[in-house]
Amino acid sequence: MIPDDFPDASFTGGHPFALYERLRAEGGLVRHPRLPMWVAASHAVVHAVASDPAAYRSGGGILIDEIGRPFDTPPTIMHTDPPDHARYRGLVAPAFRPSVMRRLEGEVRARVRALLAPIEAGRPFDVVGELAVPLPLQVICLLLGIPEDDWPRFFRWTEAIIPGAAPELSAEERDTLHLECGTYLLGVAHERRAEPRDDVISQLALAEPAGERLTDMELVMFLIQLLVAGNETTRHSISGGLLAFAENPGQWPADDLPAAIEEILRWTSPVVYFLRAATRPVVLGGQKVEAGEYLMLLYGSANRDAAAFGPDADRFDAARRPEAPGLAFGYGPHFCLGAALARLELRVLLEELADRFTAVATEGVPRYNGSPVVVGLRHCVLKVTGR
Ligand code: HEM
């Protein structure tokens, strides 16, 4: 029996891992107890659905609204299916190529060093506020081409846009901030149309995916999506990853950095779920799913599945080298466009931290945000030991 605290639009707190385990034990695909949709909890089912856009579409909406209905948006990269999806993705994919990431590394390292400068051994610091919030925000603003003086405004704006990330805000306040952000971005996009620069806003402002420029609405939706996608998610992997090292003494610093980064992503899985809708009747996870029925893909649950990651899947192991693909970035054609960027930020941060500090420990009790969609730490005090 699925309990009432099952993830829906009112879900708060960190991932409910005990519940995930029960759902996987029930077969990996179960009916949601209150919403008219299926819940995919096992690695095999989440992987199968995400891999097959012909059978499971994103175009009908990938998130649920406050009352639990899937909501559709104007078409964007995340809300389109092949072949339109490739057109949207092609507009921004060049900005995330490995060669661009390599060029960005020096800039990321400089930002990391500046953020680490005030962090001293023995002084408790909030890893969320001092590292995990500013780093991805600075990097995505840099890539998009937002003038540096305006970066602080984006923290408030992205908090307002992610459902549940800033529970103290009223619906009106959130709407106002959302509108402010959109208006601001449109202003910058119009400036870039007149005077293009080497940045993502200029690329999008001038792009003609179907022989025509994006409308103002499409442009704003796209930019907001990039801003939000590149921000909150990476934040939670940075803070959750450092907390994992603090809670698992002896694993810091990691000998195998690429493995540690994948383990941090598996462990934190900041995206709780995205939806897909079946395009035709299918048999999946032993269940019959009808055409049009929605499925909620629980990435955090798939990433703790013992069938994919072994009997110690519930343990943080920075040296883990699993054969199964981690699903924190999704899978298939919608695989996270910013994956290389997020990995770059994590790698540079871990390298620079390991150069300075020999151990990391917790101070006090970490607090989670209340987002039903992008889950992670809101406050987490750590202490490092110097070399
Ligand atoms: C740890 C950090 C991150 C995590 C866990 C994450 C997670 C995800 C997931 C699960 C998806 C799949 C969406 C789907 O299947 O419908 C996705 C897509 C996407 N992500 Fe990320 N993301 C991260 C960082 C970033 C960054 C830094 C960016 C930079 C802008 C970014 C931009 C995107 C975009 C544009 C898509 C849509 C791709 C598409 O639909 O083709 N993400 N991400």
Descriptive labels:
single chain, 3-stranded antiparallel sheet, alpha+beta, binds protoporphyrin IX containing FE, iron, Cytochrome p450
Summarize the structure.
With 387 residues, this protein is an alpha+beta fold. The chain has helices at 17-25, 43-51, 84-92, 98-116, 127-132, 134-144, 151-161, 171-194, 200-206, 216-229, 232-247, 257-268, 299-302, 306-309, 339-356, and strands at 29-31, 37-40, 56-57, 63-64, 70-71, 125-126, 273-278, 282-284, 287-289, 294-298, 357-362, 367-368, 377-379, 381-386. It is globular, with a radius of gyration of 20 Å.
Structure write-up:
The structure is a single chain. The protein has helices spanning 17-25, 43-51, 84-92, 98-116, 127-132, 134-144, 151-161, 171-194, 200-206, 216-229, 232-247, 257-268, 299-302, 306-309, 339-356, and strands at 29-31, 37-40, 56-57, 63-64, 70-71, 125-126, 273-278, 282-284, 287-289, 294-298, 357-362, 367-368, 377-379, 381-386. It has 387 residues and is α+β, with helices and mostly antiparallel strands. The chain has a single domain (17-386), classed as Orthogonal Bundle (Cytochrome p450), CATH 1.10.630. The strands form five sheets. The chain has a five-stranded mixed sheet, with helices on both faces. Strands 6-14-11 form a three-stranded antiparallel sheet. The chain has a two-stranded antiparallel ribbon with strand order 4-5. A hairpin with a 2-residue loop joins strand 8 and strand 9. Helix 8 (171-194) crosses helix 9 and helix 11 (232-247) packs across helix 12. The chain is globular and about 60 Å long. It binds protoporphyrin IX containing FE. Protoporphyrin IX containing FE (HEM) binds next to helix 10, helix 11 and helix 15. This is Cytochrome P450.
